[in-house]
Amino acid sequence: MKKVLIFFVASLALISFSACSKKEEAPQAAAPAATSQPAAEVPKAGGVTGKVVETMNAAGYTYVQVDDGQKKIWAAAPEFSVAVGDDVIVPEGMPMNNYHSKSLDRDFEVVYFVDSVLNPNATAAAASVDPNATMPEGHPDTKVSATAAADIDLQGIAKAEGGKTVAEINNGKAELAGKEVALRGKVVKYNAQIMGKNWLHIQDGSGDAAAGTNDITVTSATEAKVGDTVLVSGTLSLDKDFGYGYKYALIIEDAKVTVE
User: Fold this and answer.
1) How far apart (Å, rounded) are the C-alpha atoms in residues 160 and 149?
2) Which of 5, 78, 167, 177 would give a disulfide with 207, using CB separation of 3.0 to 4.6 Å?
3) Which of 64, 138, 142, 65 is nearest to 102 (CA)?
């Protein structure tokens, strides 16, 4: 099963799922009760792999409770095919504390909203991706958006010594395939520990967003955060296909990443 799960792992920045026409009202978190004790730290849901023990659909979302053998978490993603007993992968998500679902009339202590829950047990048809899909109205937006990237200052980023810009790598990918490349840029999206790897999206202000030449996906063991300036070096791969429609025209895997 581990081999199957690894085969289907993918980056969330290039994936979105279809949402149904029904709308759930905006998440409403109840005010915490007054207490003299410090609030407990909410654990991240990054890279959780486990078995589905409960699931239901509501307002274009699928809710799943996942047991990884040590803890159980609730996650919600745009509606997808899943059943109790399926082994799934939940990437790092946005925690909503004291969340009340109006459509389910149910309270959750914590729900992690994610772009997708990866389910190798689903059929290829059920797992197909709608590139025009959006999250239901009122829910937290977990996608990488142009607006989010615009909030990060990409001006004045110096090209890596002996390296290339993001645009140069995208435009010259045919000649650079299989070769080591170096670049400097800023992290515009970061997903930690999805099946043992950190997933970074790097931009440096070069390239055309409409043409998709302004961003490069990188996997690495190095930790980073959105907004970090990083120096990246690694081998460029083309047409990487993880299955289920999760394809990358180019990706730098297992890169050496230095946070500057």
Assistant:
1) 21
2) 167
3) 138
Domain 146-259 class? Answer: mainly beta
| SS3 (DSSP) at 109 | strand
Tell me the C-alpha distance between 62 and 248, whole Å: 26
Distance of CA 243 to the CA centre of its chain: 16
Helix (H, G, I), strand (E, B) or coil at 171: helix
Of 90, 167, 117, 94, which Cα lies nearest the Cα of 17?
117
Tell me how far the alpha carbon of residue 10 is from its chain's centroid: 8
Query: Which token pair is 73?
Result: 């978490």
pTM over 0.85: no
Sign of CA dihedral 237, 243, 248, 253: negative
> Where along the chain do the CATH 2.40.50.140 domains lie?
146-259
Tell me: the pLDDT tens digits for 124-174? 444 444 444 444 444 444 444 444 555 789 999 999 999 999 999 999 999
Domain 1-19+42-141 has CATH 2.40.50: yes
Name the DSSP letter for residue 118.
B
